[in-house]
Amino acid sequence: MQPTASRWVQPGQDRWLTGPAGRSAAPWRLLCIPHAGGGASAFRPWEGFTGPDVELLVAQLPGRESRFPEPALDRVAPVVDGLAIALDRLAPKPTLIFGHSMGAMIGYELAARLVGEASPHAPRTLIVSGRTAPGSSSTLGDLLGLDDAGFADALAARYDGIPAALLADRELMAVFLPTLRADFRMVAEYRPDPAACPRLPCPILALGGADDIHAAPERLTAWQDFTTAGFMREIFPGGHFYLAADPARVVARVLAARGMV
């Protein structure tokens, strides 16, 4: 399938969700949630690989892109609230939830919320990418107390997904720092007790990069403890942002998760 580009819209005029126009009648829905600092545009390359039978929706969190004027949120709960309410405004259909890095954390909490409410939007499969399971140790706490220059330098040293041009332009970086800080605070302070975390009744598929130092492949297997259904893991070449190198292959694997139901 060749990549295509179309106009993206907000279904139901809801600012929390966006996706390609003309897909509302598709039998399946794929909800994608981006990484820290990322916006809906991170998943625009996926449009041409999903096809007309999949309604591609992407979460658009406050503080970025079309929602840049809004203050970014630094807690998981209000993000989950916003996404759950947005989904409730849509007609239910079989849904996959995919989240990368911070998005995987949000995706799990959203899935747990929807399952707990017996929502018709509860996912058929949860796909988590580039993120260790709830309760895993985090090394992000040391970033929170750094000044702006130190914070930007630490991001440049640890992560390969932030554009070099942005990191090199301190004035431009200063514009985006509040959102980045809020996102990293959200991740660093997400410390649930694994024993208290619900086990989902849907399968979980864990994806990762072979060279990801933030979510090493062997650490992804802990996600199997958060489902009472099936679990699978698949590793791709690359680091933390492996999914940018071969989106066609990643999307194909994500959509194949429909068969895990």
UniProtKB/TrEMBL annotation:
Pfam families per record: Thioesterase (PF00975)
Xref: Gene3D superfamilies: alpha/beta hydrolase (3.40.50.1820)
GO annotation, biological process: lipid biosynthetic process
InterPro entries: AB_hydrolase_fold, TEII, Thioesterase
Domain (Thioesterase): residue spans on this chain: 29-251
Family label: Belongs to the thioesterase family.
Protein's UniProt name: Thioesterase
Lineage of source species: Bacteria, Pseudomonadati, Pseudomonadota, Alphaproteobacteria, Geminicoccales
